[in-house]
Amino acid sequence: MVNRLGLLLRHSVLIIGAAVMLAPFIIMVSISLKPPGEVFAPQFSLLPQQWYVVENYTAAFTRVPLARFILNGFIVTFCIFLMQALTALPMAYALAKLHFRGRETCFALVVLALLIPPQVPAIPLYIALWQLDLLNTYAGIILPSTISVFGIFMMRQFFRTVPNDLIAAARMDGLGEFAIVWRIMLPTALPALAAFACLSFIWNWNEFFWPFLVVQDEALMTPPLGIAFFSNAEAGTSFGPLMAAATAVTAPLVLAFLFAQRAFIEGVTMSGIK
Q1: Which residues form the domain of 141?
Q2: Residue 9 falls within a domain, yes or no?
Q3: What distance separates the 2 farthest-apart alpha carbons in the chain?
Q4: Beta-carbon-side half-sphere exposure of residue 103 (alpha carbons within 13 Å)
Q5: pLDDT for 53-103, tens place per residue?
Q6: Got the DSSP string for 37-68?
Q7: Could you say which DSSP state residue 147 is in?
Q8: What is the pLDDT of residues 206-254, one digit of tens each?
Q9: CB 201 within 8 A of CB 256
Q10: Rounded CA gap, 249 and 92, in Å?
Q11: Nearest to 190 by CA among 252, 249, 271
Q12: Given this model, what pLDDT does residue 215 score?
């Protein structure tokens, strides 16, 4: 009886928590379906009395270059993840499997870097990119995020679970350290890499602060920056198109997680991050 009550309590807390977190998104989708007259109606309802789907979503994609914002988001997030993977895998392998003086100090610095807010190095990075004439470019958006200390930490934790005998056998076959990283460690680390890919995609897709600093050209704006631009132009008069734009920007995140959900859970579990 006590176990059942405990189980019921846990499930109730989880359901209430999920409802609280999902409520803003459900309301966002609901408003994107409604005409202007129903947005602030005295009696709230999730489903509209008059469907305004075509009008709201057409306005969202025509009043601002929303499709361009979404394309920029895919370009930026893919390039950042590719660079993060290329740097995190060798670094994580070195910290997990190679023995050299200062290894533990280097890992301590990685952990310390996890505690530093990304806003702290923003001004030095901005000045460096200004001197390199990379402001208002794709490179200016991508370069500061190419090294992920969380990616290094996560992959290092996973590599520690790989048997040393496997690496020793690869060395006996004549493989060098870089060949071991890409031909042995990478295939075994695909679940953890998929989990990191999901997290990297979500973080960088939602990034607002850095693109806001370095981007002035509308053609280079990422989805969150584009939505802010849209809201500045339309807020107060067209909440339906604004919520339609927000829904269109959020949809790739939901689809990406649903597509990679099993790999994400498996990768997080195997990497030892709880």
Answers
A1: 65-270
A2: no
A3: 75
A4: 12
A5: 888 899 888 888 889 999 999 999 999 999 999 999 999 999 999 888 989
A6: HHHT-SS--SS-SS--HHHHHHHHHHHS-HHH
A7: S
A8: 999 999 999 988 889 999 888 876 655 444 457 888 889 889 999 888 8
A9: yes
A10: 33
A11: 271
A12: 92
CA dihedral for 216, 218, 223, 225, sign (positive or negative): positive
Confidence (pTM): 0.85
Contact predicate 63/235, CB 8 Å: no
Q: Strand, helix or coil at 130?
A: helix
Q: For residue 41, tell me if it sits in a domain.
A: no
Cβ(177)–Cβ(81) under 8 Å?
A: no
- Whether residue 26 lies inside any domain: the answer is no
Task: Return d(Cα 150, Cα 160) in angstroms, integer.
Answer: 15
Q: Is there a domain that residue 136 lies in?
A: yes
Show the CA angle centred on residue 182, arms to residues 180 and 183, nearest 5°: 65
Q: If we measure between CA atoms, which residue out of 115, 153, 144 comes closest to residue 214?
A: 144
Question: What is the amino acid identity at position 208?
Answer: F
Q: Please state, in angstroms and rounded to a whole number, the distance separating the CA atoms of residues 253 and 241.
A: 19
* CB-CB contact of 196 with 155 (8 Å): yes
Compute the distance between CA of residue 194 and CA of residue 201 in angstroms, rounded to an integer. 10
Q: pLDDT per residue over 133-168, tens digit each?
A: 999 999 999 999 999 999 999 999 889 988 889 899
Q: For residue 220, give the nearest of 63, 79, 69, 81 by alpha carbon.
A: 69
In the chain, the percentage of residues whose pLDDT exceeds 90 is: 36
How many domains, the chain? Answer: 1
DSSP assignment letter at 117: -
Q: What type of residue is 175?
A: L
**Alpha carbon separation from 209 to 35, 123, 143, 196, 216 (Å, rounded):** 32, 12, 15, 21, 13
CATH code for the domain in which residue 256 is found: 1.10.3720.10
Tell me the C-alpha distance between 257 and 252, whole Å. 9
